[in-house]
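for the writeup, i need someone to sanity check this before i put it in the appendix. the sequnce is what the collaborator sent (i think, or maybe the updated version? ugh). structure was predicted straight from it, no edits. if anything looks off just tell me and ill rerun, i have time this weekend
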Amino acid sequence: MPLIRAGGQEDLAQIRAIQAASPEASQWDPSEYLSYDLRVLVEDDGSIAGFAVSRETAPDECELLNLAVAPAIRRRGAARRLVQSIVESFQTTAGISVFLEVRESNMVARAFYKSLNFQEVTRRQNYYDQPLESAIVMKFHSC
């Protein structure tokens, strides 16, 4: 069964490949992810199926910075498991808030996050470039 673990330097080549195959994901230099909470979903054969990058912004709040799953693995629960692992790791007795931005046109991602109980809270005009597009800010809050 695939497991989620902290990502490291040794995972960057596979993360780079997944990111390159995921044009809807942010296209950052994967080495930057080492400065944040980087999680990878590892298949039984040792290959990386997906990754999530987040950062704590307050004791009870974090921001999901990037999430991508290898195209061949999509729609099998990998992304859901990665997001849930972030929520669970930051969980406090008072709950947690998780924020993220998603391209306004990315209806698949918006529906996915809504299925995880994220709510659309605001819109950031012209947030993304290449192409220029607004972002939808979404928030999850647990009690």
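The mean pLDDT is 90. The chain is about 20% helix and 40% strand.
thx in advance!!
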